[in-house]
Amino acid sequence: MNRILGPGRWASRRLTPHRAVLLALLLLAAAAFVVSALDADFGYEPSDLLTWIVVAVVVSGAVTYLCAFIIRVPPNSDSWLITGLILFFVLPGGSAETAVATVALGSAAAAVSKYVLVWRRRLIINPAVAGAITCYAVAYAGADDVSYPFWWVAAKPLLIPMIVIGAVLVTVLREWPLIVGYFVGALGAIGYVQLDQGGQDLELWLTSSPMIFLAAIMLPEPLTSPATRVARVVYGVLVGAVLHCQQLVEITDSYTLEFTPEIALGIGCVFAFVVRLATRSARRVPLTDIRVDPLAENIFGVQGSVSSGAPPSYAPGQWASVSVPRWNRPLWQSSRRVFSFVSASRTAPVEFGFTVAGPPSPFKQDLIDGTASRAFIDNRGGGFVLRDRLLARSPVVLVAGGIGITPFVSMLRARLDSGVDLSNLTVVHIVRSDARRVYTDVLDAAAAAGARVEVVVSADGGVPKGLLSAGAHYFVSGAPTFVSDTSSSIRRLDPSTRLRPWRIHTDTFVGY
User: Fold this and answer.
1) pLDDT score recorded for residue 333
2) Is 412 helix (H, G, I), strand (E, B) or coil?
3) Which residues contact 158 (CB under 8 A, 6 or more apart)?
């Protein structure tokens, strides 16, 4: 298993989530072409696959850019290609004529859905799911030239490539809790049906259904799934259970709803939308007047004004998915990054911080150069949150490595604004040199309000034992290596955390 997941851990530090999904789909497509060329029993010729993938990608890209041109907002890099590749695996099947028409219709519908099925500029339904449901509905209505989604990716010869690619991808995306929840829901539903009706074949479900593709590729889509861990696990359980419950729901005398994969995913998207409405995170927030200022050596602060509506609401410590789409970067130049909020919730301007190591990515370079005049907060969430009740009843130690201080700055600003007692709080900021100290004004204000604040200059990033507190909860934020090493050090220096691992909370800054 380590041989399978090892590349995923390495790649998780170097690939954006969208780029990782795109690479996984390309590898799976390559595997499908190899199987179709070598396996006479596969059922599809390489020429069939080539036709389908060209139609899916071309239609998805053309319609996406046409819609984007009409509303004058460039699409995010890679998204059109990811949608086309997913539908290449989901839609075609049956006769050659219906396969091409189905792929074209589904790809066009998916692209249009990005601009129609939205709430305050934010997606409601995963575009690939919208395309598949469109084909399902048209086929159900009796159209001769369109077939139901075939989900041919579930072909047994693709099982091993799908398992390997899926496991690495889920590791890159850090989505194992979501996937475990999905399989718990799926296996629970299958087990219930077995007890109630019998006749279930678990091996058939695993080897000849789109269970793994759906879990690894489609379920984690960030913009149409919940953004906090508990809600994501519930979402995974829901989709897994609905997909495998094998129930039919009579809607009208002429229509009976069957929980096919696309319907199950659609229900999951609706659940996620309700969660976003309840948490007031359902809109895409446009930011204008972007300003980037150097804060320290290779560290920059970003500020943006909310051009319409109120400043976004979030819990201090949460992250934001920020996009700067550009017309001239349709592919492999990711237009989206995840930053932690630095500002307090519902305050203006909205503020983030980031660092660069070596040549900056095109995304960060645009911010630094001032060529990015407009940005969007596409999503916000995360569970790296310090609750006031926890701070009131037990010691809390915040340990930050370098730019990992940003979520703690948001936490401190919110509590300084509300006058919360900080006597139970210790803040440790570990930097490589004095030149990389940032947000000193906030740290000084926290110290004046009763918090213990220590700035440690250390090349190796170690945590002095004297800064730990017996029975404390530890929040650790920074680069992956720092978070891993610091968490290990805390468990060694405070043995009580070995029996109570939930007292160590982590937030990893990948830094791409």
Assistant:
1) 63
2) helix
3) 28, 31, 32, 35
466-481 per-position pLDDT tens digit: 777 778 999 999 988 8
433 vs 42: CA distance, rounded Å: 60
| C-alpha angle 28-171-271 in degrees, rounded to nearest 5 | 90
The structure tokens 């401190």 sit at 412
In whole angstroms, give the CA distance from residue 185 to residue 187: 6
User: Considering only CA atoms, which of 130, 144, 37 is closest in space to residue 86?
Assistant: 130
Q: Which long-range contacts (CB under 8 A, 24 or more apart) does 449-452 make?
A: 449/415, 449/416, 449/422, 450/421, 450/422, 450/423, 450/425, 451/412, 451/422, 451/423, 451/425, 451/426, 451/427, 452/425, 452/426, 452/427
**Residues whose CB is less than 8 angstroms from the CB of residue 92 and which lie 6 or more positions away in sequence, other chains included:** 48, 52, 99, 100, 102, 103, 150, 152
Nearest CA to 337 out of 315, 312, 349, 354 is that of 354
Which helix (H) or strand (E) element contains residue 426?
strand 425-431
What is the phi/psi pair of residue 134, to 5°? Answer: -60, -45
Token pair of 52 as six digits:
């389908």
DSSP-assigned states of every residue in 81-123: HHHHHHHHHHS--SSHHHHHHHHHHHHHHHHHHHHHSEETTEE
Q: What is the pLDDT of residue 287?
A: 93
CA-to-CA separations, 30 to 2, 24, 33, 162, in angstroms, rounded: 24, 10, 5, 12
Of the pLDDT bands very low, low, confident and very high (cuts 50, 70, 90), residue 153 is: very high
Structure tokens of 498? 């070995």
